[in-house]
Amino acid sequence: MDMTWLEVTVETTEPQLDDLCAKLTMNGATGLAIEDENDFKTFLEQNRQYWDYVDDELLERMKGAARVKFYVTDDADGKAQLEKWMAGIDLPYSTTPLRENDWATSWQKYYKPLSIGERLYVVPEWEKGEPVPDGRTALYLNPGLTFGTGNHASTRLCLEWTEQSVKEGAKVLDLGCGSGILSIASLLLGATSAIGVDIDPKAVDVAYENAGLNGIGRDKYTVLAGDILSDASLKARLAEQKYDVVLANIVADVIIPLSAHVEELLAPGGVFLCSGIIDTRCEEVRAALEKNGLTVFGRKDRDGWVAYAARF
């Protein structure tokens, strides 16, 4: 039988956080998780090169946050432990019951099959085997592995452009591939080969695993870890062949310098598709594309996000 746990949340204020953690630790509490809006904002600012956006729900949850969470078993022993850990602490706290399997699967309810564009149908792995609508091509993913599930507006925009741009026999390069969703979609839509690249080494295994869910092997699909902006040898390796479609669903701060390298990678008549651009940065990105010789011939917008299609 699954063990049941209690998630204990102690509300405090930012100046009192350190004192609260010290008291809990002195009382024997372990596994403390601290949620602090100021730390969260500092983290976002220090890592802003990796994203232009943060989930609105997360921002709302962290607004004014100054709380500590820990876990005890939901039984007499756990409740005695909770009493001991909270001794001498006069602060409000709440408890939420959690089953052991909630840790692994509670997020699954947020992921449902998603129709995108005219042909694609993004399906979470645990719904494999369920009927696929007529005329749709199923793309199976394990959304728990890394960013890139098709739910975010920027990914949907890029998938729509991918569907319109990838022709039978195309060669595709996916820069910042994450889960591999765009390059895998390209192969399912008729590309003969695709290469995915991501700065996060974990993305390599993730993308290969998702490709495997779709019956795609390494004969057609290659995933590499690295950053072409700082690794000249990686860029040279990629530039040994030219690509009919180059994809970059990243962020404005990466797309802008990346636009200077697209010419070395794109085949004559090829298309550069870029997304992940928050609308307040779109003119800056467009200017960089044009400065580097690209002509923007299409734009898609959704929920404050922009995706461009460009060519030389």
Quick description:
The chain is of the alpha/beta class and 312 residues long.
Question: What do these coordinates show?
Answer:
The chain has 312 residues and is of the alpha/beta class. It has two domains: 103 residues, Alpha-Beta Plaits (2-Layer Sandwich); 154 residues, Rossmann fold (3-Layer(aba) Sandwich), CATH 3.40.50. The protein is 31% helix and 29% strand. It is built from eleven helices and 14 strands. Helix 10 packs parallel to helix 11. The protein is elongated.
Shape: elongated
Stretches where pLDDT is under 50 for at least 5 consecutive residues are none
> How many separate domains?
2
The first-level CATH class name of the largest domain = Alpha Beta
| Strand composition percent | 25-35%
Distance between the termini: 61 Å
Rounded radius of gyration (Å): 23 Å
Number of helices: 11
Mean pLDDT rating: 87
Percent range of helical residues: 25-40%
Characteristics of this structure?
single chain, 312 residues, alpha/beta, Alpha-Beta Plaits, 2 domains, 14 strands, elongated
